[in-house]
Design brief:
Elements: E1 5-8, E2 16-20, E3 25-30, H1 41-56, E4 62-67, H2 78-85, H3 89-107, E5 113-117, E6 120-122, H4 124-131, E7 134-138, E8 142-144, H5 158-176, E9 180-181, H6 182-188, E10 193-195, H7 200-211, H8 216-229, H9 236-251, H10 253-264
Parallel strand pairs: 3-4, 4-5, 5-7, 6-8, 7-10
Antiparallel strand pairs: 1-2, 2-3, 8-9
Helix pairs in contact: 1-3, 3-4, 4-5
C-alpha cells in the first residue's frame, strides 16, 4: 500500500506490525515467520493492544489481518506450550482469559475486518479467521482444529468457530482434528472466498472498494445490529429496537449527508474511490 504509516504496537516485541494507509485501511500483520506465526502470551497481548487501539480510532475504515511468511498461523507456540505444561490451574486460567479477551476484542472490533489467509491456519488460528467479518484464503491454505491431538480442546475459540461453521461441522472437525482444504473451508463458511495466491490481495482490495464507498458510522452500526439481532425472536422489543435504530440513523449527520447526496445525485463526503 502507498503512503502507509507503521507502528509497533508492543514495547515487548516486534511480533505485530500495524500499518495504516491514506484511506484509513489498517493492516495488522503477524510477524513471526520463523515459527509460522505461532502465538504466545506476548503476541496475544500485542494483538489485544492493537485491536483495541484501532477500534477506538475514528479514522480507521477497515482492518486487514495478515501474516508474513509461508503460514498464516500455526497455532500455539511450542515454547509457550512447554511453559503452560508446568502452570498451575490459576496460571492456565489467566492465560486462557488473555486469549479469550483478544478473540473477543477482534470479534467485536467496530470496523469491518478481513482475514488474509495463506498456508497453514491451525488450532487457535482458526479462531482468528472465524472472528473476522470476512476471510479470503489461498486455495493452497490448510486448516485444522488440532487441539484434541494433544489431549486438549478448542475452548476459547469455540464460540466463534461454531458460529462460523455451524454445530454439525464443528462436531466433525473438533473431534477428528483432520486437516481440511481451503475449498472445504469455503463450503462450511469459515472462508468467504477461496482464490489463488496471486488473487488474494486483489480480492481483498475489491471488498475494500465497496466498504470505502459506505458511511463509516453506518457500517459500524450495521455490524453492531447483526450482533444485537442475531438469534433473537422478532418480538415487540426487537421491532421497537430496530425501528429506533433506523430513526436515529436517519436524523444523524451521516444519515442526512447520505440522503442528501442521493437526492442531489452527488457523492457523499465519506466516499473514497
Amino acid at each position: 500500500m502507498d503512503n502507509t504509516t507503521s507502528q509497533n504496537d508492543s514495547a515487548m516485541s516486534e511480533h505485530v506490525i500495524s500499518e495504516v494507509d491514506e484511506r484509513g485501511v489498517a493492516t495488522v500483520t503477524l510477524n513471526r515467520p520463523e515459527v509460522h506465526n505461532a502465538f504466545d502470551d506476548v503476541l496475544i497481548n500485542s494483538l489485544t493492544q492493537t485491536f483495541t487501539r484501532l477500534g477506538a480510532d475514528d479514522s480507521i475504515r477497515a482492518v486487514i489481518l495478515a501474516s508474513k511468511g509461508k503460514s498464516f498461523c500455526a497455532g500455539a507456540d511450542l515454547n509457550w506450550m512447554k511453559r503452560m505444561a508446568g502452570y498451575s490451574y490459576e496460571q492456565n486460567l489467566n492465560d486462557a482469559n488473555a486469549l479469550a479477551n483478544m478473540l473477543h476484542t477482534l470479534n467485536t472490533l467496530p470496523k469491518p475486518t478481513i482475514a488474509r489467509v495463506q498456508g497453514a491456519a491451525f488450532g487457535g488460528a482458526v479462531g482468528l479467521v472465524a472472528c473476522c467479518d470476512m476471510a479470503i484464503g489461498s486455495k493452497m491454505s490448510k486448516f485444522c482444529l488440532s487441539e484434541v491431538k494433544l489431549g486438549l480442546i478448542p475452548a476459547t475459540i469455540s464460540p466463534y468457530v461454531i458460529q462460523a461453521i455451524g454445530e454439525r461441522n464443528a462436531r466433525r472437525y473438533f473431534t477428528t482434528a483432520e486437516v481440511f482444504s481451503s475449498r472445504r473451508a469455503r463450503r462450511i463458511g469459515l472462508l468467504s472466498e477461496s482464490v489463488t495466491e496471486e488473487e488474494l490481495d486483489s480480492t481483498i482490495e475489491s471488498l475494500l472498494e465497496h466498504i470505502l464507498k459506505n458511511g463509516p458510522n453506518a457500517v459500524t452500526a450495521a455490524k453492531q445490529l447483526i450482533a444485537d439481532v442475531a438469534n433473537r425472536v422478532p418480538d415487540d422489543a426487537l421491532r421497537n429496537m430496530t425501528s429506533e435504530r433506523i430513526a436515529n440513523t436517519r436524523v444523524s449527520s451521516e444519515g442526512q449527508e447520505g440522503l442528501g447526496a442521493f437526492l442531489q445525485k452527488r457523492r457523499p463526503n465519506w466516499y473514497i474511490s
